UniProtKB/TrEMBL annotation, chain A:
The keyword Cell division does not apply. Residues 65-357 form the AAA+ ATPase domain. It is found in: Dynein axonemal particle; Nucleus. It holds the Pfam family TIP49_C. This is RuvB-like helicase.
TrEMBL record, chain B:
Pfam families: DPCD. It comes from the Eukaryota. Belongs to the DPCD family. The gene is dpcd. The lineage of its organism: Eukaryota, Metazoa, Chordata, Craniata, Vertebrata. This is Protein DPCD. InterPro entries: DPCD.
Length: 459, 203
C-alpha cells in the first residue's frame, strides 16, 4: 500500500462549548486605538474600550509594573467582556490569570497565599531550556483502528534522515495529534519528546515531483541530516508560580500534576526571585509581566486589600485588572462604607474605567452576535421582540432566551425563531423582575416566609 | 592538569556506598548538585553501570541518564505510552566497558559487517558509526575522555560484528587506567553505610 491512509479528522475535532464570552475575540480597536462600533464581538462601550486599549499598550510594553485598573459598571455592561478582550489581544505568550474574588477563600490556603500565587502566575519568564526532539522525514505512517470502533488505536511511524531510519510506536495521543496535523508520508516533522508537540516543517524535496494536490503555501525543505534525535535549545515561557512549585521541596516536580500545591515558603520565593534576576542580568531569561484579572473584586476583604497595596509596589508585580458592579457599599471585613467596596487608599492607586448601560441599538447588535455564536436563526420580528425584552429586563436574560427559543423552534421543526417561540420561552422562564413580583404576591404560601427586607450581606 | 581536576572533584564529592545483589553501589554527590551512581561487580571489580542525574535549569530533578550499562526500564510505562516510543525492533545502543577498553554494543543490527564504518572525529571529540544502507547512524562522545580532557586517538578504535550485534571498542589510555585503579581503592574504603531500608548489616 503506497498511498498513505487518509486520516479521519472528525473524531478528534473538539467541539468547543459556547461560553458566556466566547464571542469575544479582542477589543475591536483599529491601529490608532480608535474603537470600531462593532468589531471582534465587541459592541458599544467606546470610551471604556479605548481606555482598555491604552492599558493594553502599556502591558505589551512591559516596562511598567504594579499598575492597577478597575472596571466599574452596572451588571451586564460588558466588564468581563472587556477583560476577556484584553486577554485575547495579548496573545498566548503573555500570561493572563483570571480569578473571581471569592476564589481566594479556602480552608487549605490563607487568603494572602492564594493572592500571591495568583500574582506569580501572572508573571512569565521566557527561558531557554534544552529538550530532546525527533526531527525527520516521514517514510510511512500506519494507524490501525480496532474494528469495533472503540478501544486503543495502534500506530507505527517510520522516520528517516539522510543517514538513518527508525520505527516508532505511537500512543493514542500521538495518533490524534498526527492526524490533526494531517501528517503524511513525505512531510518533514519535528516532535518534542517531552511534550509530544508536533510541528510540520514542510515537505521533503524528494517528493516535489509527486503528483499531488497541494496548497500554494506548501514549503519544500531538505531531508534532515545526521541523527534523528537531537538536543535542541528551545525558548518557552513558564510562570514564576510554576518555578516556585518545581523548587518547593515537599513534592518536587510532580506537584504540578497533582494540582495540590499547598503553601509555598517565602524563602523559596525569595530564592527564585534572586535566581530570576540573576538570569535576567546574564541575558539567559526575560521577564514578561502579564495580567492578573480579579472579577467581583468587592468580595475581597480588608486584609486582601492591604496585601494588594503592598504587592503592587514590588517590581515583580503584574498589571492588575479588577472588575466590580457595586456602588457605595461596605468594605468586607470592616464597618466602613466606600465606593465599590474598595478602601480609598487602594482606590487612589487605581485607574478607573467605567462602563455604561447599552442603548437599544447596541443591545440589538449584541443579540445578533450571540445568535450567530449559538447558531440560532432569528426572524426580524423576533429580533425586535427580544431586543425589547433585553432593554426591559436584562441583557443576560435576553441572551438566555436565545438558546431556549432555538430549542423550542427546533422542536416544532421550524428553521427560524419566530415571535411565538420567544413568547413561549418568555412565559416558561421568569426574569428577575417577574420572579420578585411573583414572590411578593405569593409570599404567604412559601416556606420560611418571615422575610426581613433583605439587604445583601457580604461578610 | 585536567585529569587532576576531575580526580579532585571525585575525591571531594560526597560518597555513599552500599553492597547489594553482589554489586558494590556507590552514589556520588558533587559540589555543583550533580549526582553520579556507579555499580561494580564485587568479584571482578568491573564497572557494570554508571548513571548521571542533573538538575534542569528551572531546578527540577531530572531523570537518571545512563552512561554505562543497561538502559533503565521506562519508569512509568502507562504515563509514557500515550506519546511516542521507539519500536523494540530498533537498534539498541548501550555501553559496557571491559577492564582495558571502553566498549559499546549495538544490538538488533541485522546487516553484514561491510555495511558499517566506524571512525573517530577528533575535532568534534566523538565517534561516528555510519551504515552504507542508511539504516543506522550514531554520533557519540566518550564522557570519560571529556571529563579528563584527554585527546582522541584513531588507532585505539576497533569494531566487530556478530550475532546481529555491532561491538565497538576503544582502548583506554594509560591515564584513565591509573585513575580507575585509584578510584577503586578509594571506594573500597568507603564505609558500607547501612541504608534506611536495612539492606546491609551493621558490622
Amino acid at each position: 500500500m503506497a498511498t498513505p491512509k487518509v486520516p479521519e479528522v472528525r473524531d478528534i475535532m473538539r467541539i468547543e462549548r459556547i461560553g458566556a464570552h466566547s464571542h469575544i475575540r479582542g477589543l475591536g480597536l483599529d491601529d490608532a486605538l480608535e474603537p470600531r462600533q462593532v468589531s471582534q464581538g465587541m459592541v458599544g462601550q467606546l470610551a471604556s474600550r479605548r481606555a482598555a486599549g491604552v492599558i493594553l499598550e502599556m502591558i505589551k510594553d512591559g516596562h511598567i509594573a504594579g499598575r492597577a485598573v478597575l472596571i466599574a459598571g452596572q451588571p451586564g455592561t460588558g466588564k468581563t467582556a472587556i477583560a476577556m478582550g484584553i486577554a485575547q489581544s495579548l496573545g498566548a505568550d503573555t500570561p493572563f490569570t483570571a480569578l473571581a474574588g471569592s476564589e481566594i477563600f479556602s480552608l487549605e490556603m490563607s487568603k494572602t497565599e492564594a493572592l500571591s500565587q495568583a500574582f506569580r502566575k501572572a508573571i512569565g519568564v521566557r527561558i531557554k531550556e534544552e529538550t530532546e526532539i525527533i526531527e525527520g522525514e516521514v517514510v510511512e505512517i500506519q494507524i490501525d483502528r480496532p474494528a469495533t470502533g472503540t478501544g486503543a488505536k495502534v500506530g507505527k511511524l517510520t522516520l528517516k534522515t539522510t543517514e538513518m531510519e527508525t520505527i516508532y510506536d505511537l500512543g493514542n495521543k500521538m495518533i490524534d495529534s498526527l492526524s490533526k496535523e494531517k501528517v503524511q508520508a513525505g512531510d518533514v516533522i519535528t516532535i518534542d519528546k517531552a511534550t509530544g508537540k508536533i510541528s510540520k516543517l514542510g515537505r521533503s524535496f524528494t517528493r516535489a515531483r509527486d503528483y499531488d494536490a497541494m496548497g500554494a503555501q506548501t514549503q519544500f525543505v531538505q531531508c534532515p541530516e545526521g541523527e534523528l534525535q537531537k538536543r535542541k535549545e528551545v525558548v518557552h515561557t513558564v510562570s514564576l508560580h510554576e518555578i516556585d512549585v518545581i523548587n518547593s521541596r515537599t513534592q518536587g516536580f510532580l506537584a504540578l500534576f497533582s494540582g495540590d500545591t499547598g503553601e509555598i515558603k517565602s524563602e523559596v520565593r525569595e530564592q527564585i526571585n534572586a535566581k530570576v534576576c540573576e538570569w535576567r542580568e546574564e541575558g539567559k531569561a526575560e521577564i514578561i509581566p502579564g495580567v492578573l484579572f480579579i472579577d467581583e473584586v468587592h468580595m475581597l476583604d480588608m486584609e486582601c486589600f492591604s496585601f494588594l497595596n503592598r504587592a503592587l509596589e514590588s517590581d515583580l508585580s503584574p498589571v492588575l485588572i479588577m472588575a466590580t458592579n457595586r456602588g457605595i457599599t461596605r468594605i468586607r471585613g470592616t464597618n466602613y462604607q466606600s465606593p465599590h467596596g474598595i478602601p480609598i487608599d487602594l482606590l487612589d492607586r487605581l485607574l478607573i474605567i467605567a462602563t455604561s448601560p447599552y442603548t437599544e441599538k447596541e443591545t440589538r447588535q449584541i443579540l445578533k452576535i450571540r445568535c450567530e455564536e449559538e447558531d440560532v436563526e432569528l426572524s426580524e420580528e423576533a429580533h425586535t421582540v427580544l431586543t425589547r425584552i433585553g432593554m426591559e429586563t436584562s441583557l443576560r436574560y435576553a441572551i438566555q432566551l436565545i438558546s431556549t427559543a432555538g430549542l423550542v423552534c427546533r422542536k416544532r421543526k421550524g428553521t427560524e425563531v419566530q415571535v411565538e417561540d420567544i413568547k413561549r420561552v418568555y412565559s416558561l422562564f421568569l426574569d428577575e423582575a417577574r420572579s420578585s413580583q411573583y414572590m411578593k404576591e405569593y409570599q404567604d404560601s412559601f416556606l420560611f416566609n418571615e422575610t426581613q427586607t433583605a439587604t445583601m450581606d457580604t461578610s | 592538569m585536567a585529569v587532576q581536576s576531575w580526580r579532585d572533584s571525585l575525591k571531594s564529592s560526597k560518597k555513599t556506598a552500599l553492597i547489594h545483589d553482589g554489586k558494590r553501589k556507590i552514589h556520588y554527590l558533587f559540589a555543583d548538585g550533580k549526582e553520579m551512581a556507579e555499580e561494580y561487580d564485587l568479584k571482578t571489580d568491573e564497572l557494570i553501570a554508571r548513571r548521571w542525574r542533573h538538575k534542569s535549569t528551572l531546578g527540577a530533578q531530572g531523570q537518571w541518564q545512563v552512561e554505562v550499562g543497561e538502559p533503565l526500564p521506562t519508569p512509568v510505562a502507562s504515563f509514557e505510552c500515550d506519546a511516542i516510543q521507539e519500536n523494540c525492533s530498533n537498534p539498541v545502543f548501550m555501553r559496557k566497558d571491559t577492564k582495558s577498553s571502553f566498549q559499546w554494543r549495538i544490538r538488533n543490527l541485522p546487516y553484514s559487517k561491510d555495511v558499517f564504518s566506524v571512525c573517530v572525529e577528533p575535532s568534534e571529540r566523538c565517534i561516528i558509526i555510519k551504515t552504507s544502507n542508511k539504516k543506522y547512524y550514531k554520533k557519540f562522545n566518550i564522557p570519560d575522555l571529556d571529563r579528563s580532557r584527554l585527546p582522541f586517538d584513531c588507532s585505539a578504535l576497533s569494531f566487530t560484528h556478530a550475532n546481529n550485534t555491532l561491538i565497538v571498542s576503544y582502548k583506554k589510555p594509560e591515564e584513565i587506567l591509573t585513575l580507575e585503579q585509584e578510584l577503586l581503592k578509594v571506594i573500597k574504603k568507603v564505609k558500607d553505610t547501612a541504608g534506611p531500608d536495612g539492606d546491609c548489616k551493621t558490622q
